Amino acid sequence: MPSKLSRDTFALFLSWVEDFGNEPDRSRKISAYTGRWEPLGTRDARAVLWVEDPTLPTNNCAACLLPNGWKATLEEIRRALALLGSNAPLASVCSDDAPSRIELAPPRLRAELQAKRQQLEFQKRRREMAEEEPEERRVKSRRLA
To answer: What is the top-level taxon of the source organism (predicted)?
Structure first.
């Protein structure tokens, strides 16, 4: 029973976030204190989404969220909801094989993420080669040379 409850709770949360819409209401914020949407001052209305910091109510936890990041978030939420609706295993809903969103990262972080991805791909290829039979490896090496 707990796994069903977890799936349902997860789906409810995703649906709740999806209901923010393509462009969340910039006149309100999600309050960590009241657990509700609260009015937001006009100077703070520039943010795509305003999530009140529980330790500092004047701080927006979602301050770095940009419109294209919100769009990608909604796409992932809709993908997850579709998988949940088709009774896909929760592990596949939460897997890391989703489309790459590296282009949404700030330039310095993007370069770091790309380097890490290349390193992981290189390590994966090395593991695969180590698992191959020695003869297969020699044949491949000759082809690559």
So the answer is: Eukaryota
